Structure formats: structure tokens, C-alpha cells
Amino acid sequence: MRFRPRNVRSRLTLWYVLVLASLLALYAGVASLFLFLSLREDFDQNLLQDIETVEGMLAKEPNGLVSLHASHPDAAEPRIGHLIEVWSPEGSLLYRSAALQDQALGGSPDRDEGLHDPAPSTSRLPNGTRVRMASSIYHVEDRRVVIRVAYGEDRLWRELSEFGEVLLLGFPIAVLLAGFGGYALARKALAPIDSMATQATKISAERLSDRLSIENSEDELGKLGAVFNDTLARLQAAFDQLRRFTADASHELRTPLTAIRSVGEVALQDQRSPVEYRDVIGSMLEEVDRLTRLSESLLALSRADAGHVQLQREDISLVRVAREASSLVEVLAEEKRQRTDIEGNADLLVSADRLILRQAIVNLLDNAIKYSPPESRILVRVQSEGDKQVSLDVVDQGPGIPSEHQPYVFDRFYRVDRARTREWGGTGLGLSITRWAIEAHGGNVALESTEGRGSTFRISLPLAKYSSTNQSKGGPQ
Ligand code: ADP
After folding, report:
1. Closest C-alpha to 380, from 343, 350, 355
2. pLDDT grade, residue 472 (50/70/90)?
3. Angle of helix 274-305 versus helix 430-440 axis, rounded to 10
4. Contacts of 261 (CB under 8 A, 6+ apart)
5. Is 462 helix (H, G, I), strand (E, B) or coil?
6. The domain that contains 378 carries what CATH number?
7. Is the CB of 297 under 6 A from ligand 1?
């Protein structure tokens, strides 16, 4: 089973302690190695000095043999652990320290001893003691002798193990302190997360205006808090919009229903002539018409919102779609004796869903007819905008839209003049559907209007060969 502490605080501490322990172990290893090397270096220096001392103590006896004179000032008695052997070239032992207790420091020298590396080396005595030994060849007048000097290595290992013990004792203390310190630090660093989590749990759909308090907006947690707050702000905006939409939609649905009901009730109060009943039924049907249009628009919007609308794209001439749209609203224009002219190059193609694009243009034409005076002229003009875009303008000679209303006319249920627009049968959803439809095709809609001097709605779309196949998922606002 894998050990994995549940909270980040403990995980951070664990990692911290593990890393620190490994670093300490590495440090201890390297420090011990350096201590060992430097102690051995000391040993080797002493060995070489001692060889020189022993060389000074050698003298040739009158009988021709070489002997070791203890008369040399340095030769008092070799230091503790100081082991010396001197061999004559014939293989007879000239001197051996008492401390060696008859153990050879390397036995009788070989003939080619002189070729051996004189550098100190480590070896074992027959009794198992580890010694550091150096040897040298020395000439006493014409006689050659082999000198060997050695120290027991116990002192070196003792110092090393004492050092190791100190380290070993300090190790758990350091790790323990690091653990406590690390835990306290992690706790302090992560405390804002706890407080953010507590605040976040209190935020509900009814309290979307609440925000997390941010201590330091520059650090990582502050940035996380800011991102969360931004998300909340977007959620709040979407929620508010949805609430407004639902409230507006129910209000819009209630108005015609109330009208139908009151017209019916009034008609039922007295006995009326068939002509009067026909009038009542006629005005009820008008309200039903309005309800039908409204529910169709709401359906279109909710399908668009849910991202259920799949565009069936084909390359079509924008002028031809404009003609189709115009023929759909022709009757309305004729009623007001308005003239609709369509201008433009029929070769300008867009990659679009014919029905959705046509509906977008119908909505613009319908508004132009509805809000323009009788006998006015409505112009639909298609032209290329550079070599990648094509635009379609719907120009009317209506009352125009006051500039303070212009930014909102594409919003759902927004009407410049509520009462009068209803009278004309507007639902307040036409432009938002148009905007969604055009944006879904990768284009945009803009309005240019001066009060009293007509309005121009401009649809811009990518030309067929430049349109991307991506379609926007968002619904109309
Ligand atoms: P509606 O169904 O009420 O026309 P729209 O979303 O189509 O809803 O339009 C929103 C509002 O913008 C309308 O109520 C109207 O006040 C204004 N508007 C739209 N088109 C025109 C236009 N061509 N001329 C004047 N006002 C317009």
C-alpha cells in the first residue's frame, strides 16, 4: 500500500524532510570522505618524515654490517603505534620495533624492492591490524637497506567513527526540527487556502455577489482567488441575465394571455351580433399570433443557448438569400406601400446555413418595415469589404435609434419604446436572434443610426472561401 498523507501540508512537510534528510546524508558522506582523506594525508606525511629519521639512525659497523643507532635525538622511542622494520639486502632483519611483536611488516624484501612504488599504502599485519605503511631504499655507504615504517590505522578510524557518531546524533535532531519547522511553514503558507475554502462554501446561487477576500493579489494564492472571483462575476452575470430573461419571458407571455382573457370575458358579458363576435375572435387570433411568434423566438433562443443548432452550411449568394428574405416580408411592405430595393453582386458567396441566415435578414427587414413610415424606401445593399469579407446593409428611412439605446438594441427583450413596439407586434427578440445567427457564421452585426434620419444595420460575413468551419456555440444575448 502506498503511503500518501491526505493533506497538502503533510505532503509538503514529508517531501521537505525527505529532501533535507537526503541532503544531510550526502553532506555527511562527503564530509566523512574528506576527513578520512585528510587524516590519511597526515599519516602519510608523518610516515615519510619518520623514514627520514630512521635513515639518520642507520650506521655502518666496523664489521661491515649495518645497525640502527638509537643515539639519534629523534630516535628516543618510536611513537605509539609507530612500527619500524629495517632489512639488509641479504634478507636479514636489522631492526624491528618491539610493538610489532615479531610480526613482519612485509617480510623479507624482494630483490626488486627498489622498483616498488614508494607511496604509502594500507595493508594488514598477520594479527589482522590494519596499518598504513611506507617503505624506502637507503644506502649506508655502499650497503643498501630497506626501511619500512608503519602506523596502526586505529587512530584514523577512531577519529572517523567519532565524527560519524556526532553526525548520527545530530541527524535525527536536525530532521525533527526541519519537520516541525516545515510543517509550521506549510501551515502558514496554506492558511489562506483554508480561509478561501470556508468563504467559498458559503457562496450559493443566492449569494453570487459575494467574493473571496484576497490578502495579496500578487502571489499564487491571490491570483487563484482573483480567477475564482472572475469566474463568480461571470456566473453572476449569466445568472442575472437568465433571471431577467425568465422574468421578461413570463411577462411577455402573460400580456397576450391577459388580453385574450379580457377580450373574451367582455365579449361574454352581453349578447352580441355575429359581426361583433367576429371582431372579438379576430383580435384574439392577433394575440395568439403574437404568442406563436414569441414562443417560436423563445424556442430558437433556447436551442441556440443549448448549442443544439447545427449549421447546414453551403456556399450561397448573399444577394439571393436577401431576395428570398425580402419576398417573405413582401406582404408587410406592400401593406405600407414601401419599396424594397436589393442591390449588389450576386456572385458574392458566403458559406452559410440558408434558413438561419435568411431568418437573420428577415428580422432586419421586418424591423425596417415595421418602424419606417409608409411609402418609404428600404435598401438592401450587398458589397465586398476588402477581399475576405462581404457586407449586407439594410438601410431604412425610419425614425432612427437614439444613441443612448443603440448599445442595447441587440439585447433580449430590449425595446426603445416598449408600449409602441408591442403595438406593432414586436417581441424584442428579433435583433438578438439576428446577432446570434450572424456570429454563429463567424460574422458580426453593427448598427449605424442617427435619430430622425433612419438606421442602417450592417451584417459582415467572411466570403465563402475564407469562412472557417468553426461555429460559435454561444446563444444570442
Ligand atoms: P422587436 O421585435 O421589438 O422589433 P428587435 O430585437 O428586433 O425587437 O428590436 C429591438 C428594438 O430596436 C425594437 O423594439 C426597436 O425599438 C428598435 N429597432 C430595431 N430596428 C429598428 C429600426 N430599423 N428602426 C428603428 N428602431 C429599430
Report:
1. 343
2. very low
3. 30
4. none
5. strand
6. 3.30.565.10
7. no
Torsion of CA 21, 27, 30, 36, to 10 degrees: -100
- Residue 264 confidence (pLDDT) above 80: yes
Range 21-41 average pLDDT: 94
Per 3-state DSSP, what percentage of the chain is helix, strand, and coil (rounded to 5)? 50, 20, 30
Q: Is the CB of 427 under 6 A from ligand 1?
A: yes
Residue 421's domain comprises: 311-473
Q: Within a domain: residue 210?
A: no
pLDDT given at position 391: 97
Residue 346 Cα to ligand 1 midpoint, Å, equals 28
Kindly state whether residues 329 and 462 are assigned to the same domain.
yes
Compute, in angstroms, the gap from residue 231 CA to the centroid of ligand 1.
Answer: 32
Verify that 244 and 341 share a domain, yes or no. Answer: no
Q: Look at residue 80 in the predicted model and tell me its pLDDT.
A: 44
For the purposes of burial, counting CB atoms within 10 Å of the CB of 204, is it exposed (0-12), middle (13-18) or buried (19 or more)? exposed
The mean pLDDT of 183-199, rounded to a whole number, is: 89
Last residue of one domain, picked from the residues 280, 304, 328:
304
| Per-residue pLDDT reduced to its tens digit, 118-141 | 678 888 888 888 888 888 888 887
Q: Are residues 268 and 342 in the same domain?
A: no
Please count the structural domains in the chain.
3
Between the CA of 291 and the centroid of ligand 1 the distance, in Å, is: 18
| Nearest CA residue ID for atom 23, ligand 1 | 368
The rounded radius of gyration (Å) of the Cα atoms in the chain is 51
In whole numbers, what is the pLDDT of the chain averaged over residues? Answer: 86
Q: Hey, whose CA ends up nearest to atom 2 of ligand 1?
A: 426
Kindly state whether residue 203 falls inside one of the protein's structural domains: no
Taking 90 as the threshold, does the pLDDT of residue 323 lie above it? Answer: yes
pLDDT of residue 107: 61
DSSP secondary structure, 414-460, as one string: --SSHHHHHHTT--S-HHHHHHHHHHHTT-EEEEEE-TTS-EEEEEE
* pLDDT of 352 above 90: yes
- pLDDT given for residue 432 in this prediction: 92
Distance, CA 377 to ligand 1 centroid (Å)?
A: 17
Same domain, residue pair 22 and 136: yes
CA of 258 to the centre of ligand 1 (A): 24
Average pLDDT for 196-207: 87
Nearest CA to ligand 1 atom 13: 415
Residue range 10-38: mean pLDDT, rounded: 93
Query: Which residue, of 158, 180, 206, is where some domain finishes?
Result: 158
